Give the backbone structure.
Amino acid sequence: MNRISVPVRQLDPGLSLPHYAHAGDAGADLLSAEQFTLEPGERRLIGTGVALALPVGWVGLVHPRSGLAARHGVTVLNAPGTVDAGYRGELKVCLLNTDRDEAVHFERGDRIAQLILQRVDQAEFIPVEELDASDRGADGFGSTGR
Ligand SMILES: O=c1ccn([C@H]2C[C@H](O)[C@@H](COP(=O)(O)OP(=O)(O)OP(=O)(O)O)O2)c(=O)[nH]1
Ligand SMILES: [Mg+2]
């Protein structure tokens, strides 16, 4: 598996770096820099204690962890969060507790989300009068099977 070098600033020296749990994993776990409790229905922006310098042509995507979702109903509200290559601030995770009844407690250092790095292109948007025809045409938003 290809590995790109990504400079990381540890804003919170007591916290480990983002970490791939297994060889070949797509997502590197992001840790919480805080201890906090998410009440039912509550959302909260959580610091991860790291800032990155992603190479231009790459994007960081902040994905939910499936275990937190399945066990506790905790997800990333804006999933997948977009980390632009030029962003030098602290990586943050907008967590949401979708459970109606149970609060969820997190300790500092708990894994709260995962960061997936992907190559990305920009488009040059070119104004035209007509778009070329396609099989789908303008059908969308649940049009298939109707
Ligand atoms: O889950 C996320 C999503 C975003 N960001 C940071 C990096 C990203 O480059 C920046 C802006 O994100 P986005 O473009 O999604 O937010 P916006 O509401 O459009 O803000 P802006 O006007 O700053 O672009 O915020 C995070 O740390 N975590
Ligand atoms: Mg933006």
In short: Strands lie at 8-10, 27-31, 36-38, 43-52, 58-63, 74-76, 81-83, 90-97, 104-106, 111-119.
